[in-house]
């Protein structure tokens, strides 16, 4: 098979402090990105092993169809393929985590949790202890780089900013980042598709996954949650406690939501709070759904060590929202306060706030709930 020239402008090996790998395990989901990542590493001369995590049954890129496509890609590339049954781990760290979060009135972010607890850590352990490899590669659009001045791995945005996935990787510790490879981080998505077409890979025209794997498998997040959380009717109220309507479970709502609230009003209403104790959904106008700051917990400092004084940065409070100017104030107990330059709409507890300096991901954490009077 004639592979095209690598699109990597910089070495894929992340750290001069680690032995240059010869054997690399590639996490294969069955999509075009991971397929091309494996192909590029084969071209670069690595001994490549494909590894697919069996996360759940049913449709979805991570499941039955993905495993079939991943095995076929390995056959095309002439590399071995192994499947690891990770269903129990996925159930504990993702399904149970989501259900508990929604039941507690927050909107958890499963992808970063999955990357840390289900994917990268366990894959690296399996690569070392079972397959005799030192490094793990995936098709994520992000970059890792070693900074000798700080003796620290740095995580950067991908060259293709429209596909950048660094936001979902903010929670990975240095001990994992040092052994990761992202072959697609320095190329555009259209180049990935072109390489796949040139190689005749069966995933070349495979559609992009548009939703969480759980949503793809169950049809919607509402359907998924309704399997685990029983209906619990309650009131929809304004900030003064006036009852405006009824809901069938606060797990169907998220901060900043406008559509599907189930009540009509003379002006647009948004979800501004979820009171678990009273089983109430609190709504208000857009100004009431904005806030000047927030606090985050479980902070992970990535490209820099934890600073001792406030630092300026740009912050993303959701994956698809643009980064906005803010000041990060480190707090004790792995927490931080984020003060936005301009008040922000829809700051959602359970989601990740991730802060950057240019392309460098400095750190991130989970947004904490704000008590809303009712």
CATH topology of the largest domain: Rossmann fold
Radius of gyration, taken over Cα atoms and rounded to an integer in Å: 22 Å
Number of domains: 3
Shape annotation:
globular
Largest sheet: 6 strands, antiparallel, barrel
User: From the 3D coordinates, which CATH architecture of the largest domain would you assign?
Assistant: 3-Layer(aba) Sandwich
Main sheet strand line-up: 12-15-14-13-16-17
Q: Could you say which structural class the secondary elements and strand pairing correspond to?
A: alpha/beta
Strand content: 25-35%
State the order of secondary-structure elements, H for helix, E for strand: EHEHEHHEEEHEHHHEEEEEEEEEE
CATH superfamily of the largest domain: HUPs
CATH class of the largest domain: Alpha Beta
Q: Helical residue percent?
A: 10-25%
Alpha carbon gap, first and last residue: 66 Å
Q: Low-confidence segments, ≥5 residues, pLDDT <50?
A: 1-18
Quick synopsis:
This protein is an alpha/beta fold and 374 residues long. It is built from eight helices and 17 strands.
What does this structure look like?
The protein has 374 residues and is α/β, with parallel strands linked by helices. It folds into 3 domains: 23-217, Rossmann fold (3-Layer(aba) Sandwich), CATH 3.40.50.620; 231-284, SH3 type barrels (Roll), CATH 2.30.30.280; 290-367, Elongation Factor Tu (Ef-tu), domain 3 (Beta Barrel), CATH 2.40.30.10. It is built from 8 helices and 17 strands. The strands form 3 sheets. Strands 12-15-14-13-16-17 form a 6-stranded antiparallel barrel. A 5-stranded parallel sheet has the order 3-2-1-4-7, with helices on both faces. Strand 10 and strand 11 (280-284) form a beta hairpin. The longest helix has 20 residues, at 110-129. It is globular and about 65 Å long.
């Amino acid at each position: 098979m004639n592979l095209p020239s690598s699109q990597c402008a910089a070495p894929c090996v992340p750290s001069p402090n680690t032995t240059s790998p010869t054997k690399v395990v590639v996490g294969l989901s069955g999509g075009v990105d991971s397929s091309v990542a494996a192909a590029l590493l084969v071209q670069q001369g690595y001994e490549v092993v494909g590894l697919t995590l069996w996360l759940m049954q049913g449709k979805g890129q991570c499941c039955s169809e993905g495993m079939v496509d991943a095995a076929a890609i390995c056959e095309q590339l002439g590399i071995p393929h192994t499947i690891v049954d990770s269903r129990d781990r996925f159930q504990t760290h993702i399904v149970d985590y989501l259900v508990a979060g929604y039941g507690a009135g927050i909107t958890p972010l499963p992808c970063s949790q999955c990357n840390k607890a289900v994917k990268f850590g366990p894959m690296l352990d399996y690569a070392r202890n079972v397959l005799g490899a030192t490094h793990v590669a995936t098709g994520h659009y992000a970059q890792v780089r070693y900074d000798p001045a700080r003796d620290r791995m740095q995580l950067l945005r991908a060259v293709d900013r429209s596909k950048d996935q660094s936001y979902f990787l903010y929670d990975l510790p240095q001990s994992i980042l040092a052994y990761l490879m992202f072959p697609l981080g320095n190329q555009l998505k259209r180049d990935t598709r072109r390489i796949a077409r040139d190689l005749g890979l069966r995933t070349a025209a495979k559609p992009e996954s548009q939703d969480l794997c759980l949503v793809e498998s169950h049809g919607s997040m509402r359907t998924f949650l309704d399997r685990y959380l029983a209906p619990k009717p309650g009131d929809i109220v304004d900030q003064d406690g006036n009852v405006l309507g009824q809901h069938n479970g606060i797990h169907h709502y998220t901060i900043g939501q406008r559509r599907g609230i189930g009540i009509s009003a003379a002006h647009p209403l948004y979800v501004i709070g979820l009171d678990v104790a009273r089983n109430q959904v609190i709504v208000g106008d857009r100004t009431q759904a904005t806030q000047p700051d927030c606090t985050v917990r479980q902070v992970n400092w990535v490209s820099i060590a934890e600073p001792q004084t406030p630092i300026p940065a740009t912050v993303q409070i959701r994956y698809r929202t643009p980064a906005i100017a803010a000041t990060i104030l480190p707090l004790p107990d792995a927490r931080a306060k984020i003060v936005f330059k301009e008040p922000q709409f829809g700051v959602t507890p359970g989601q990740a706030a991730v802060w950057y300096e240019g392309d460098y991901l400095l750190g991130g954490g989970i947004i904490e709930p704000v008590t809303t009077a009712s």
